[in-house]
Amino acid sequence: MGLCASSSAGAAAATTALVLLPTGELREYPRAATAARALEDAAAGCGGCDADGVGFDGPVTAVRDGEALRPGQIYFVLPAAARRRGMRGEEVAALAVKASAAATNGRRRRGAIAPLVFSPPTEEEEEREREAVAVKTVPVARTRRQRRRFASDLPAIPELEVSE
Fold this sequence. Notes:
Elements: H1 9-12, E1 16-20, E2 26-30, H2 35-39, E3 46-50, E4 74-79, H3 80-85, H4 89-109, H5 123-136, E5 137-139, E6 146-148
Parallel strand pairs: 1-4
Antiparallel strand pairs: 1-2, 3-4, 5-6
Pfam family, one: PADRE
């Protein structure tokens, strides 16, 4: 009781790796396929990543070209820019929905699902990032180097007094 696993017996018995292309097409690759073979079908400037390696707001770890694709595992082919800057919450959620749709429907109808769309960072987000870096660095007069000020980005949480 209480023991949870992220894979099922069906996934363990699978003989193919599933690769979701940016076009929304689901491709199945046999046990001996490598990441380089899966990327041959993708557009230039894209790279593969393991579904387990996709997280929020951080760079996505790419799968090396010579690495073998694991059967039963889902892989995504993402644009290089999206991998470098990290993925936003709504992008990860959309990716999860597309992976779920691909896993449940891909084998039955062999069609493509809606293409993956990654929005470029807005000017407002880029400006906020520049301001955050500028605020965290303060010049030191005597050494003429910039020193990072380690200030918390989290606001304070007020405590409530409980009266009896």
